[in-house]
Design a protein that fits this description.
transcription; single chain; 10 helices; rod-shaped; transcription regulation; disordered C terminus; mainly alpha; about 180 residues
Length: about 180
């Protein structure tokens, strides 16, 4: 005896599946997509269907699960029509940051010891000018001057213009270069 292929029965249930999908989504286009997804899932998993059981119930279960899965997914997603969030999620390649970090380290090593010390205390470590001056045993103006000269010399050694941004992946390095800790020089 030859048993019928359950795939042949799928088409019979399309109108009922579409009606059920519309009742769930309240949107014809989304309902059609869900019915299509359900058919693809049913077709690819037809070996899991037990011949002799209720095909409509099996299809409706798949459709219902597809709907709830899409709802859970939608709750985790953020609408980003203008691409604002996507633009903020972009990550620069790490190799650019590594290369610029190498250049930065070479330039930092070329600074005078006093300038490097002042820059690292104020920029990288986040100490105030007053705190750095106390640590170094010099006047506040001296620390400000050393820090300013160090930043200017670093920019010169690295070939940066005043309006040119230095793109690095390391916030500590950026704070060394910028008194206001802004990510551009």
């Amino acid at each position: 005896m030859n048993t019928p292929d359950p795939r042949d029965e799928l088409v019979e249930h399309l109108p009922a599946m579409r009606a059920f999908a519309i009742s769930l989504t309240r949107n014809g286009a989304i309902a059609d997509d869900m019915v299509q997804d359900t058919l693809v899932k049913a077709w690819t998993n037809i070996e899991k269907f037990q011949v002799g059981t209720n095909m409509r119930a099996w299809l409706f279960t798949i459709l219902r699960n597809t709907y709830y899965s899409s709802r859970r997914k939608a709750n985790r997603e953020v609408a980003d029509v203008d691409g604002v969030f996507t633009d903020n999620l972009a990550e620069k390649p790490a190799h650019d940051g590594h290369m610029q970090m190498t250049d930065f380290r070479k330039a930092l090593a070329q600074l005078k010891d006093e300038q490097r010390e002042a820059l690292l205390l104020v920029g990288a470590s986040g100490f105030s000018y007053e705190e750095a001056a106390d640590m170094c045993g010099v006047a506040v103006g001296t620390i400000k001057s050393r820090t300013n000269r160090a930043r200017a010399r670093l920019a010169e050694l690295m070939g940066l213009n005043e309006d040119e941004a230095l793109e690095m992946t390391d916030d500590a390095t950026m704070s060394v270069l910028s008194a206001s800790k802004i990510s551009s020089f």
